[in-house]
């Protein structure tokens, strides 16, 4: 990493305008992405994909650090990954995870389809609350883009190529998952 970037991250003794400028330069050279749900199948794929570029940094929100380290043993030693373990209800934690990132990948989900599922809804609400938290701390903060990953069956454009019988089977078998995604 170039010397400029290591000094730009310290931010001590520089003006607010200079800090914002240095953060913008830092993001342009080494973008940071947040993955909420990094232990799931989609989260793991995103993590692998984003870490293929040495220029990317990743903030990984997980409910269990141990599970993430078990799934990705090399991750603990990876200098470009910061792990944020905790509960979705911990808004300051989520705010720390998504602050100063270019994009948030909301890859939360649950195994199986159960009545009353809310993991994606709760995640979406937590992200919005965290963005409000960031904005309250710094009204001029650059907020990241939110990318909500969902199943193709929820999106009518993506599912129109799917045979009707397959679509009906998916919606029946995964109805609670789809309901959670649609409400988020």
Q: Would you give an account of this structure?
A:
- The chain is of the alpha/beta class.
- Helices cover 47% and strands 13% of the residues.
- It has nine helices and five strands.
- α6 links the parallel β4 and β5.
- The longest helix has 19 residues, at 119-137.
Topology (elements, then pairings):
Blueprint: H1 3-8, H2 16-29, E1 32-36, H3 41-50, E2 57-62, H4 65-71, E3 81-85, H5 91-98, E4 103-106, H6 119-137, E5 145-148, H7 156-159, H8 164-173, H9 175-183
Parallel strand pairs: 1-2, 1-4, 2-3, 4-5
Helix pairs in contact: 5-6
How many helices in DSSP terms? 9
The major pleated sheet works out as:
5 strands, parallel
Chain-averaged pLDDT: 75
User: Could you tell me the strand content as a percent range?
Assistant: 5-15%
Q: Approximately how much helix is present in the residues?
A: 40-55%
Please provide the ordered H/E string of secondary-structure elements: HHEHEHEHEHEHHH
Give the strand order of the largest sheet, numbering strands 1, 2, ... along the chain: 3-2-1-4-5
| Termini Cα gap | 39 Å
Class of secondary structure makeup: alpha/beta
Backbone CA Rg: 18 Å
Overall, the morphology is: globular
Q: How is the quaternary structure best described?
A: single chain
Low-confidence stretches: 1-12
E-strand count: 5
């Amino acid at each position: 990493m170039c010397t400029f970037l290591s000094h730009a991250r310290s931010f001590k003794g520089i003006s607010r305008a200079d800090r914002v400028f240095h953060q913008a330069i830092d993001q342009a050279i080494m973008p940071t992405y947040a993955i909420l749900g990094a232990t799931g199948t989609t989260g793991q794929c995103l993590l692998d994909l984003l870490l293929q570029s040495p220029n990317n940094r990743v903030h990984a929100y997980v409910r269990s650090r141990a599970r993430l380290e078990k799934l990705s043993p090399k991750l603990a030693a990876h200098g470009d990954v910061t792990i944020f373990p905790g509960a979705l209800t911990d808004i300051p934690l989520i705010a720390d995870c998504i602050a100063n990132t270019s994009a948030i990948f909301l890859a939360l989900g649950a195994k199986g389809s159960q009545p009353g599922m809310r993991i994606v809804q709760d995640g979406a609400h937590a992200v919005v609350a965290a963005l409000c938290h960031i904005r309250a701390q710094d009204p001029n903060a650059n907020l990241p883009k939110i990318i909500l990953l969902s199943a193709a069956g929820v999106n009518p454009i993506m599912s129109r190529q799917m045979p009707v019988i397959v679509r009906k089977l998916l919606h029946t078998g995964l109805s609670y998952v789809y309901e959670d995604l649609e409400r988020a």
